[in-house]
Amino acid sequence: MTKERMTLQVLSLAGLVACVILALWGWRTGVLTSQEQMQALVHSCGAVGVVLFILFQAVQVVVPVLPGGIGCLAGVLIFGPVWGFVYNYVGICIGSLAAFAVARNCGKPLLTMLFSEKTIAKYSRWAEERNRFARLFALAIFLPVAPDDFLCYLAGTTEMSWRQYTAIILLGKPFAIALYSLGLTVVWQHLVTLLQ
């Protein structure tokens, strides 16, 4: 394991620990069990709360610490279904474009630092088929079944143009984000009801 990969894993672990601590604090104070308290906390920050949420969504694509679905759930719970979707969409699209830009500048060695060899081996075959990659990538972005963060980085190491990539992200993300948001909201509400 390279020194860079170890450093990234330590940072990811530190981020995960911070998220767990924050989640425990949120649970104990009721912020995570009461939608009203969660909304009040974020809304008390005004526009800064919205900007921080969008920034969180963008960063979690570039530096995946939590599954993206958790951010989608938080967006809907805090801002409601319409604005939650909008803020999720904006943040995730910004993050997806940033991941592509980072990979475009750093190349394939970055993939081995950020992702497992198994994931790289599984999806790198897609990149070997130039004509087919764009279609497979678009389908994976549209349907929430593949590791989108990795695929955004992988796309940055291919010859895909910025225009084509941006079109796929902007047109493909809404369905997946809406599906994640709706599905996870139903699961969350069911879980909170069971725990009360």
TrEMBL record:
Keyword Transmembrane (UniProt): yes
Principal subcellular localization: membrane
Keywords: Cell membrane, Membrane, Transmembrane, Transmembrane helix
InterPro entries: TMEM64, VTT_dom
Mode of membrane association: Multi-pass membrane protein
The VTT domain, residue ranges: 67-181
Top-level taxon in the UniProt lineage: Bacteria
GO cellular component: plasma membrane
Compartment(s): Cell membrane
A matching Pfam family: VTT_dom
Transmembrane residue ranges: 7-27, 39-56, 86-103, 133-156, 168-188
Family: Belongs to the TVP38/TMEM64 family.
Name of the protein this chain belongs to: TVP38/TMEM64 family membrane protein
